[in-house]
What we know:
10-stranded antiparallel sheet; rod-shaped; alpha+beta; 10 strands
Amino acid sequence: TLEAVDLELFLHSLEAEFEARRREEHDELVGELADAERVSVRLADRIVQASGKTITLILRGGQQLSGKILDATRNWLVIRESSGASLVPLGAIEAAWPLKAGCDLGGVRAGLGISSALRGLATQGSPVVIDHDAGHTGIIREVFADHFDLDISPSTHELDCRDRRSSQRIALVTSGIRRVRSFDVLRGDGL
């Protein structure tokens, strides 16, 4: 009968329309979820994912570094260039490449802050060059919540001409650090 056929066609049409709308909503939701995940990925997360690979960094102030990432957390990384290793706070990085488009946040460790890494250098007592917004070469003595004390002396002037004055202890804010390099590496004595 004609009415049964019309009703059946109507129901099939309605069912097909419902399925098409469901697929559209699903596709929109997948896109929204991908966007939401992408906006939660920080540059630091992508840099940590590049551990063990060679990358190029532009630091605050325009300095460019290229080398292999030896270790990285969400707070800092250690990069080995041809001239030696440097400790770089991730907050000092203005640009980085190449980086993977995606990011697996499961493998990213928060790690210790830059102050913990500075405390380790202070324990060693070795002279370091601090590429800092305020400059300076010396020995890290004490590390506080947001700054550290650096002893500068005439024996460390070879690498940073801003410190050509008598020995003194100065306080530098950790947020001003662009990178920390070993004085011994820069003199060619190794790590």
